[in-house]
Design goal:
CATH class of one domain: Mainly Beta
CATH topology of one domain: Elongation Factor Tu (Ef-tu), domain 3
Strand order of the largest sheet: 1-6-3-4-5-2
Helix content: 40-55%
Distance between the termini: 209 Å
Number of helices: 5
Order of helices and strands: HEEHEEEEHHH
Radius of gyration: 60 Å
Number of strands: 6
Largest sheet: 6 strands, antiparallel
CATH architecture of one domain: Beta Barrel
Structural class: alpha+beta
Shape: rod-shaped
């Protein structure tokens, strides 16, 4: 019960002894004690209110600060995904965007580029987005182009970059890459088949070797049996022969000389005859 002024009123002829003052001082002390107790309660309530306010501030501001920091570090068009998957051409799949402050900022564009954390800049894929659910992070779409080793195996360290400015011609060009690769592979297969056929023809054809040699053949005179000795028995390109070196030449010349002499005698007889 609160203390009032009547508790301290002095009655007529009241003796002011020790009991008179003790009773009044006790009321004063008790009132101060009650006030101190109420002050302690107020301080406790004040502390609770401050702590509650700070908690609410942290709950509201910390995520906002984290989002702002993520935006400052990564921009508004970059997110990550830990979905374990092997990318392949024309693969229809859903990547789970990681639940980080970046997800709240990420806005998927019609086409996104997928790379890997720390991988080569030559390793990337183009992903055509069908739907994106920011609340649960589901990014659904189709892989329309691959480059490098991005599809070499199952990975889970994806970096997804929205590419709102990606030109249609670039996307179309990327889409033709699989066809070009297929054409190149077909040409390679055809060349390998042609080489195999040629090798078969050479192996089974009428000429298996040249002068007993196979592979790249280089022929010299010594490789043809008897050629060197046959050439050694032939006459030289310049000659210094006498009549005796030609078989029968001298006898033919003598016979020719006798015939000439007889012809001359006959002619002399004809010149001296009578008419």
């Amino acid at each position: 019960m609160p203390v009032s002024m009547k508790d301290f009123r002095v009655r007529a002829k009241e003796e002011m002894d020790e009991a008179f003052f003790d009773r009044r001082f006790r009321l004063i002390v008790e009132e101060f004690a009650a006030l101190l107790a109420r002050l302690d309660a107020i301080d406790s309530d004040t502390d609770n209110l401050v702590n509650l306010g700070l908690t609410k501030v942290n709950e509201a501001l910390v995520p906002a600060i984290e989002i702002a920091q993520a935006a400052a570090e990564n921009g508004f068009l970059v997110a990550t995904s830990s979905t374990a998957i092997t990318l392949s051409q024309d693969l229809e799949t859903t990547l789970q965007v990681d639940d980080t402050p970046a997800r709240a900022l990420f806005a998927a564009t019609p086409f996104v580029v997928i790379t890997r954390d720390g991988a080569s800049l030559d390793d990337w894929a183009v992903f055509q987005v069908d739907t994106y659910d920011r609340e649960n992070g589901g990014l659904a779409g189709t892989v329309i182009g691959l480059n490098g080793n991005i599809g070499a195996g199952e990975f889970s360290d994806w970096i997804i970059s929205a590419t709102s400015g990606l030109a249609k011609s670039v996307v179309e060009g990327i889409a033709t890459i699989p066809g070009l690769i297929a054409s190149a592979q077909e040409a390679q297969t055809a060349a390998e088949d042609a080489a195999e056929a040629a090798e078969t023809v050479l192996a089974s054809g009428p000429v298996a070797s040249v002068n007993g040699q196979t592979g790249v053949v280089v022929l010299g005179m010594s490789h043809i049996s008897g050629l060197v000795s046959a050439l050694a028995g032939k006459a030289a390109t310049s000659h210094a022969h006498t009549i005796a070196n030609v078989n029968g030449l001298q006898a033919a010349l003598d016979a020719l000389d006798t015939a000439i002499t007889a012809l001359e005698a006959d002619l002399g007889t004809l010149d001296g005859g009578a008419y």
